[in-house]
Amino acid sequence: MAYYPTRLKTRQTYSWVGKPLLDQKLRYHTYKEMNVKMEGGLTEIHIQVGQFVLIEGDDDENPYVAKLVELFQDDSEPYSKKRARVQWFIRFCEVPVSKRHLLGRKPAAQEIFWYDYPACNSNISAETIIDHVQVVALGPDEVIPMGPKNEKTLFVKLSWNEKTFRPLAPELFAEFDQPQEGSPRHQKPVGAKTKGLGSPSWTTAEHAIKRIESRHSTSKSRRTPSHPVTPKAKKRLELSGLPRTPSTRISQQNSGALLDSPGRSKRKVAFSEITSPTKRSQPDGLHTLSPALKALQKTGEIQSSCAKDNKKASPDCHRILRTRVPALKTTETSEERTLTPIKGGWKSSAVPSVVLKPENIKKREAEEPEAQDETTSTPHRIRRKSSLLTLNRIKQQLRFLGNSKSDQEEDEFLPAAEISDSGSEEEETSTPPILRRTSSRVSKNLCSSVKSSLQTPSKTPKKTPKPSTPRHAIPRIPSRNLAAQEPASMLEEARLRLHVSAVPESLPCREQEFQNIYNFVESKLLDRTGGCMYISGVPGTGKTATVHEVIRCLQQAAQVNDIPPFQYVEVNGMKLTEPHQVYVQILQKLTGQKATANHAAELLAKCFLTQRSSEETTVLLVDELDLLWTQKQDVLYNLFDWPTHKEARLVVLTIANTMDLPERIMMNRVSSRLGLTRMSFQPYTHSQLQRILICRLRHVKAFEDDAIQLVARKVAALSGDARRCLDICRRATEICEFSCQKPDSPGLVTVAHLLQAVDEMFSSSYITAIKNSSVLEQSFLRAILAEFRRSGLEEATFQQVYSQHVALCRMEGLPYPTMSETMAVCSHLSSCRLLLVGPSRNDLLLRVRLNISQDDVLYALKE
Amino acid sequence: MKRSGFQFVKMSSRKSKSNNLIHAEYLSQVQRILRERFCHQSPHSNLFGVQVQYKHLIELLKRTAIHGESNSVLIIGPRGSGKTMLINHALKELMEAEEVSENVLQVHLNGLLQINDKIALKEITRQLNLENVVGDKVFGSFAENLSFLLEALKKGDRSSSCPVIFVLDEFDLFAHHKNQTLLYNLFDISQSAQTPLAVIGLTCRLDILELLEKRVKSRFSHRQIHLMNSFGFPQYLKIFKEQLSLPAEFPDKIFTEKWNENIQCLTEDRSVREVLQKHFNVSKNLRSLHMLLMLALNRVTTSHPFMTAADVMEANHLCSMDSKANIVHGLSVLEICLIIAMKHLNDIYEEEPFNFQMVYNEFQKFVQRKAHSVYNFEKPVVMKAFEHLQQLELIRPMERTSVNTQREYQLMKLLLDNTQIMNALQKYPNCPTDVRQWATSSLSWL
Q: What are the boundaries of the region Disordered (chain A) (predicted)?
């Protein structure tokens, strides 16, 4: 990445336009308009109060969007005297991750939200303003238009107040219409066009390297929300604006220097352009561009890319490039046409004469102090091989950057060949590579999602220099080519509903528990305090399901502002490799950060034990708590200790299987912190199980009523595990389907089917196994029984059993069993765990025991 | 005339020679085909007596593949009962279906290879082709691997993602992993609305459900398919015949016919049936049948192109041979004498352990009585013989050998049964009569 170290901050000059108006109350000078100039004077942006502007943030891809309310001069500030007041907009990616689901749909790529949050600081430094942008308000039912034409326009549909998304108020709509009329006047900024093409792609390209997501979409991906920017970031905004001011000043001091060669552009200029944040200009302003100036811009960019190439970046080369401006421009146009189809007769107007607006020249040259000694450049040195090469390389790069971010990766190792062969005739070769490019990209997009998800994320971590912004490659199982079949028959439908994974509309039979948990969490949320709750119950009694349901209801309530919003984090002890990993998981789900276990513990402690900026309560669900037990019990201690702190606002819900877990495994100081809020989920009774089944099968008539009752009673007697109940029913539907061969018969699941299913699942297989074992195996078992009876013990050595076995075989007329055969029989029986034997190296002295009762063996051996 | 007659002889001999060559060619092919059948668990062979179980399994897999329904099932059966063959058959049939083949991912794990969850996770990611994402060092640790994989599986849902079929061979070994994390997570996914999974465990342990932790057990669907070798002897005979018969696509029809006819004769032969019955009595395991047939097949040569009853009997003899008796056959007279002395000690002291000195004394007594028949060896030589017996594991020290204990007084146990010793002595070549007498006499001092 040759261009990476060349990245510099843009120098921009900000100046007021028009007369100051004195604000009586605040004693500020307010202005109506501001002029922003890039260093080199190639562009000039007029920003007017009431316009929508882009404001520099910490994410150059997605600068902040705001509406300019006021511009004023503040003399009390040390650096930035030019201040602005804005009304913020928020991008979807700036919405906190935990709140994104509230939108309830996928946001459009260019959608922004009116930020209705008075607490946010709206006073910013005017010098952080990058550019103006077009924002269009849409009604709630209007569709956001897509397409290349609208690429640089942002759309507002909803407002966001940190809690909910709401439609825009009608009076806001009126405000939106007003600035649009004034905007054409500001289309005159020169070179805005090239900005739109060139520089955004530079900047984005740089960022593309940093954050290549698994998405391969082209320019649109630039806007798709890529990472969370919390509203806190807005505060940093001013800070980032300030330090740049001194450098601007310095350049202004040098403004005495004059330069007569208008076509000159310095590397520095070029750099400043490169690093300038994304500009989006209105496409209709194109025609006002002076072509020559446009050409100049090109040179600027070209030189910059020369520098990036780290090749032949000598001043000599620069001169050549500069003189070749017209030719270059023509080649560029063809390329640009492919990018933006709006442009018409550009090529014809490409006159090499340099006619600049005097004002622009002056300003630009003012910022080029060292350029003076190069004034005597010979204007016509033509076609040097090297220059051509560089030219083409530049073009190549421009094209890549303009085309897509994803291609940025490739150009590092790929296009050397393309460059060299396109060196001779630029006119012809300038277009085909594009085609090649696009086609290759298309084909790549067509590739299975597996591939794309495999390729890009693997590169991500390497290129991400800062680990603080977590960028998870989100892995996925490839999606199926053929849609899954929907259930066709009644039985299939029933089976689908009976699957444990099917989420029922409500949880019957757990109303009381639900209410208790709900009340507990709700009261903590309302009181803005923290607390712990311990939930126990045997597996399959709906503990986790109930808590999930509670959280879902609470989230709904928070959405309609019944209760304060809260953050929800869930961890499962079984899904951790070791107890301390719980910190890592919590931290990651809470803030998206990644850290080692120890570091995460520190961060979490800091987060919970000190005054937090965010006002939200955190609800933490810890499933399978017993697995978080460690020798020192530090994990459990921390989990229960944090909620006791006032600032933490942490509600911890813990789930485990055993009722007396706190007493059994926890130290006193841990169980004391857990408190006495306990709840125990009793195993389901048969009537409850019956209700659950009936509830699941509400509109499906697939079971006989007796059958349902039977299974409910059977399961309740055994374990009261609802999962078992559902599994048996599901199996019964299958048996029913097998047994009635007519495919279209409605076939109800009867008691017989269910009994068969219950049998299959619960019957012990030992007896069948013995019945189906070979003659010698059976006789060996008999010998064991005989030996046990003889000795009166439950254990015998292999030798003893063998002598019994030999005797038995002689009695039954079987051939004499050799020792090796008998040993094989014994090991076979022990591999099925019908026998329990010691280590086999004991050979004859092997100790043999039965794994089932002697009665069972006798029963099984009875003919 | 004479000349032509000579030519004729030469021709006929050449003919028979070429005939022989052809035979050799066929025979090598026969051996190749049959050995493949015996040794490889190819999914092309037929299934015996497991049609019901097969149907259950294939329906289950189909529902996962086509409807995206998550399932878990255990296939339980003793070793050699065809568990792997069953699942291979089912997967093969499943993959032949057009709508399934592209939609289903398979992950095969074996408890003997993936000895802990970390390795298992690596293997799963590799088999799911996700390793390029994980391979980077950022995703190094076990914990990250796990959360990564869970994330991946969580992303999917019933209707849109590819179903994944997990086949866990030696399932019981996975239950010994720490916390049973892998099993918990697999079963948990199969019971929640995530990527559809079919978890198929193969195990020979009947008590497998008792090995599962209660949470894991609750999440398992409790479907079990039992393979029990529930066939009788007539079916066993049929299997025998089918396993030895040549397929119809064998190049030479006449040879195939002859071979199969011979096999048919074999199945009807009384002695072969007896052998098979005996083998069947010992074990219903089809793999042991394959072993027997393999040994019989090895005796087929060009001079002896068709299998005979004698071959099968010989093979059975090899199979059922007592390995320890064979070792005793190869011992020297001195060593045999020591074993007999031990046997007498066992009889006298009722299986109490003995030491070298006791054995030596017993041996000395015998030598003194019958000085003419056995040479009186020096003590170190006897000691050497004693140690050789220990090396052959015919005797075994009671405690582990330590430096302090004197070798002469270390307690030992004999790992041979009386019947074994007597049987071995019967067949022992050139055994001195006195020694044999000493062995048979219940009174050692006679």
A: 177-287, 357-389, 402-482
pLDDT reading at A252 higher than 60: no
Q: Where are the domains of chain A?
A: 12-177, 510-681, 686-762, 765-860
Q: Which two tokens stand for residue A782?
A: 């008999």
pLDDT in tens, B116-168: 998 898 888 888 887 766 555 445 678 888 888 888 888 877 777 888 999 99
Task: Check CB contact under 8 Å for B281 and A775.
Answer: yes
Most B-contacting residue of A214, A479, A480 (CB-CB within 10 A), to test interface:
A480
pLDDT (tens digit per residue) in A727-759: 999 999 888 888 876 655 657 888 888 999 998
Of B99, B103, B215, the CB nearest to A624: B215
Handedness of CA A295, A301, A305, A307 (dihedral sign): positive
The CATH fold assigned to A510-681 is Rossmann fold (3.40.50)
Question: Which residues of chain B neighbour A495 with C-beta distances below 8 Å?
Answer: 69
Tell me which amino acid residue A372 is.
Q
- B-chain residues near A483 (CB < 8 A): 159-160
Q: Indicate the CATH number for domain A12-177.
A: 2.30.30.490
Q: Decide if B284 and A819 are in contact by the 8 Å CB cutoff.
A: no
Residue type, A141: D
Cβ neighbours for A376, distance < 8 A, ≥ 6 positions apart: none
Which residues of chain B are within 8 Å of residue A777 when distances are taken between CB atoms? 283
Neighbours of A47 (CB within 10 A): 24
Of how many residues is chain A composed? Answer: 863
ipTM above 0.85, yes or no: yes
Taking CA–CA distances from A656, the nearest residue in chain B reads B215
Distance of CA A842 to the CA centre of its chain: 58
* pLDDT, position A785: 95
Residues from chain B that touch A574, judged by Cβ atoms under 8 A, are 179, 181, 184-185, 188, 215
Residues from chain A contacting residue B158 (CB–CB below 8 Å) = 484, 501
What gap in Å lies between CA A192 and CA A45, rounded to an integer? 8
- Quote the minimal CA–CA distance from A705 to chain B in Å: 23
**Which of A500, A577, A585 has its CB closest to that of B191?**
A500
The per-residue pLDDT for A742 is: 60
- Beta pairing class for B71-76 and B223-226: parallel
pTM, whole model, 2 decimals?
Answer: 0.64
CATH architecture assigned to A765-860? Orthogonal Bundle (1.10)
Smallest CA-to-CA distance from A7 within A250, A273, A404, A399 is with A273
Output the pLDDT for position B220.
93
Confidence of residue A119 (pLDDT cuts 50, 70, 90): low
Share of chain A above pLDDT 90, in %: 20
Of the candidates B215, B282, B415, the beta carbon closest to that of A825 is on: B282
Residues 6+ away with beta carbon under 8 Å from A31: A16, A17, A18, A20, A21, A49, A71, A72, A73
Q: Over the stretch A839-857, which tens digit does the pLDDT of each residue have?
A: 887 888 899 999 999 999 9
As a whole number, mean pLDDT of residues B27-47 equals 81
Residues of B in contact with A578 (CB under 8 A): 143
CB atoms within 10 A of CB A487: 15
Whole-angstrom Cα distance, residue A619 to residue A649? 9
Predicted pLDDT at A26: 55
